[in-house]
Amino acid sequence: MNGGPSGFNNAPITRAFVISCVIFTIVFGIQGRSNNLDISYQDIFKKLKLWKLIISVFAFSSTPELMFGAYLLYYFRVFERQISSNKHAVFIFFSLSVSLLLEFLAVALLRDPSLNSLTSGPYWLIFSAFVPFYFDIPISTRFRVSGLRFSDKTFIYLAGLQLLLSSWKRSMIPGICGILAGSLYRLNFFYIRKLKFPESIASFFSRLSLPSVGSTSAVPTRNVMGNVPTYAAAGRQVEVNQPTPVSSMAEPPEDSIATLVSMGFDRTSARQALVHARNDINTATNILLESQSH
Questions:
Q1: How far apart are CA 179 and CA 177, in angstroms?
Q2: Which of 73, 98, 162, 205 has its CA 20 to 30 A from that of 222?
């Protein structure tokens, strides 16, 4: 269970976010300022250190947190592929806004001296993503270890638990607030799931982030004759015939089948769903999810 094909193909926003987390964490770690990244009510609203609010969105407080956090962010790129980059940008913005509001409310209401500051890092995004992970990603394999039953999703939950308890209460509050934010998004609070950012947002992140290692992209270009499109990939051009309408019985692309299989669906069901969806992977995903709910 790996969250889809390797690399950040079709996930430019996740790629830019992971790169930002690594850079910010390493830079502030080298400077010995990791312990100063934790955010508090006093820093933001009284001392007006708004830079800490921005940095805390990306930078983890320690290297172990970065390792677990980056692994989970990388796995959850599957959701950007599933709902499209512009809708994923809405999910990120909504999760950030709601989680920060809930965090400050929790600190104000609990009045616990140990919660004067909360640990930094994108806990809000990681634990918001656990909501669709729990409901929408099916279990593909089960196994036993010493009499205990596990599934392929167990390792993701264990990584999340490790991150949630990394700083005890100071990390639990952001994690819980992230879960609540993800739940509100799933419940379509204020019809948030219908909103979209412009396509230029995804294009910006695609240009901002580095190309995925080992990935090849096909960029359509028009032949000088104006009739036959060509595709430039990995430094070479491949000429293909003029595309014809896809019939309902056309064989689905292997990479689309692999993407659905990586989400936990079996290969036969994935292929059939793609055939019915005319090779539209988002429609095929919805067909498979709806079939499991019955």
A1: 5
A2: 205
71-102: per-residue pLDDT in tens?
999 999 999 988 888 899 999 999 999 999 99
pLDDT digits (tens, 9 = 90+) for 246-290: 444 568 888 888 888 877 778 888 888 888 888 888 778 878 776
In sequence order, which ranges of the chain are alpha helices (DSSP H)?
A: 12-30, 41, 50-58, 63-75, 77-83, 85-110, 123-136, 154-164, 169-186, 199-208, 254-262, 267-276, 281-293
d(Cα 96, Cα 110) in Å, to the nearest integer? 21
Could you tell me which of 281, 284, 279 has the C-alpha nearest to residue 269?
Answer: 284
What's the predicted TM-score (pTM) here? Answer: 0.72
Distance CA 21, CA 187 (A): 28
Round to whole Å and give the CA distance between 40 and 83. 34
Q: How far apart are CA 278 and CA 106, in angstroms?
A: 47
Span 126-173, pLDDT tens digits: 999 999 999 988 887 889 998 899 998 999 999 999 999 999 999 999
Whether the CB-CB separation of 25 and 59 falls below 8 Å is answered with yes
Close Cβ partners of 135 (under 8 Å, ≥ 6 residues apart): 186
